[in-house]
From TrEMBL:
It catalyses: Hydrolyzes free adenine bases from 7,8-dihydro-8-oxoguanine:adenine mismatched double-stranded DNA, leaving an apurinic site. Binds 1 [4Fe-4S] cluster. It holds the Pfam family NUDIX_4. Residues 47-196 form the HhH-GPD domain. Gene3D superfamilies: Helix-hairpin-Helix base-excision DNA repair enzymes (C-terminal), Hypothetical protein, domain 2, Nucleoside Triphosphate Pyrophosphohydrolase. One of its GO terms (molecular function) is 8-oxo-7,8-dihydroguanine DNA N-glycosylase activity. Belongs to the Nth/MutY family. Its EC number is 3.2.2.31. It comes from Phenylobacterium haematophilum. This is Adenine DNA glycosylase.
Length: 348
DNA sequence: TACCCGTGGCA
DNA sequence: TTGCCAAGGGT
């Protein structure tokens, strides 16, 4: 099978099997000349970074309803956007999202630039996002390489070099298939194939439009690609979260702008360390003096460490805290929402 | 370059 | 239960 035949097969498959996604202009409409809104394409691409479609979708609908244009988003307050992002994770994306929206509003007249190079210069635009927005929103023949495309290429060509070292080789293989014809559909076809057929586990090779081209399938174990270097073990840390209530309100803090959960509202915490905390030690380290009572603990897993958070609760008052009604706790990252719910529960 | 940075679903 | 996994970017 020639590369041109492979392309024809995959694009035809996409025409018949494209996923219907809220940020997507499908192949039928694109054939009529309809273009996707760069703002919506960009927003979806950022939300989908390392995030599943089911998890990102409600956030996309919420954001586009509340901020229909990049100018609307650029004019919003930081805290509102960070609160709306809460629960989606990787909060640097939200900080960069705002920085990018404001750069587009200020430096580009509210219009996304239409070259890969100038997109790449915007905050939060790495190689992937610049290529994806360029292809999907502007039909530029860019090389869009995400985890899906890496997996598809590694199987099609039975690439033995483990990731991440194999990225260069996989990217070159993908580049050799890019043409000026339907570049936006091509990028989305590759990613849809990776997401629905050439899946990480249990690929559906009997439904694959390019199976006869696939060296990984010919070798008998397509699911073993891409090869990967083993990951380091995840360390464990221990911390204390303090739940100070004043009637219906809970005391929160704003975390520093960079680092873990940067810029997000949070419960006050101790430092997070390898050794555990006794109740006495935890109370002594509290941000304010109060009659602290141990009310349990929660477990949470981050990308590179796991955490046991001991929960101390007290009723009291203090300055320098962000007093928030219980109904406002949905502005918290998941780890603190989980901790607050557990600590405020009457079941303890 | 290697490490940092969330979350929830699933086998 | 544990580890793997999802449309990566920043530093």
């Amino acid at each position: 099978m020639t590369p041109e035949t492979l392309r024809d097969r995959l694009l035809a498959w996409y025409d018949a099997n494209a996923r219907d996604l809220p940020w997507r202009v499908g192949p039928a409409d694109r054939a009529l000349g309809v273009r996707a809104d760069p703002y919506r394409v960009w927003l979806s691409e950022v939300m989908l970074q390392q995030t599943t479609v089911p998890h990102a979708t409600p956030y996309f609908l919420k954001f586009t309803h509340r901020w229909p244009s990049v100018g609307d988003l650029a004019a919003e307050d930081d805290g509102e956007v960070m609160a709306a992002w809460a629960g989606l994770g990787y909060y640097a994306r939200a900080r960069n999202l705002l920085a990018c929206a404001r750069a587009v509003a200020r430096d580009h007249g509210g219009v996304f630039p239409d070259t890969e190079e100038r997109l790449r210069a915007l905050p939060g635009f790495g190689p992937y996002t610049a290529a994806a927005v360029g292809a999907i929103a502007f039909d530029l023949p860019t090389n869009v390489v995400d985890g899906n495309v890496e997996r598809v290429m590694s199987r099609l060509f039975a690439v033995e070099t483990p990731l991440p070292d194999g990225k260069t080789e996989l990217k070159a293989l993908a580049a050799a298939l890019v043409r000026d014809h339907r570049p936006g559909d091509w990028a989305q076809a590759l990613m849809d194939l990776g997401a629905t057929v050439c899946r990480p586990k249990a690929p559906l090779c009997d439904r694959c439009p390019v199976a006869e081209f696939c060296a990984g399938l010919a070798g008998g174990e397509p699911e073993t690609y891409p090869r990967k270097t083993p990951k380091a073990a995840r360390p464990h840390r221990n911390g204390v979260a303090y739940i100070l209530t004043r009637g219906n309100e809970v005391a929160l803090v704003r975390r520093p702008p960079k680092g873990l959960l940067g810029g997000m509202l949070a419960l006050p915490t101790s430092d997070w360390r390898a050794t555990g905390w006794s109740d006495e030690e935890a109370a002594a380290a509290a941000p304010v003096g109060a009659d602290w009572r141990a009310v349990g603990e929660v477990e949470h897993v981050f990308t590179h460490f796991s955490l046991t958070l001991r929960l101390l609760r007290a009723e009291g008052d203090a300055g320098g805290l962000i007093w928030t009604p219980r109904s406002g706790l949905d502005a918290l990252p998941s780890v603190f929402l989980k901790a607050a719910r557990a600590g405020l529960s009457n079941l303890i």
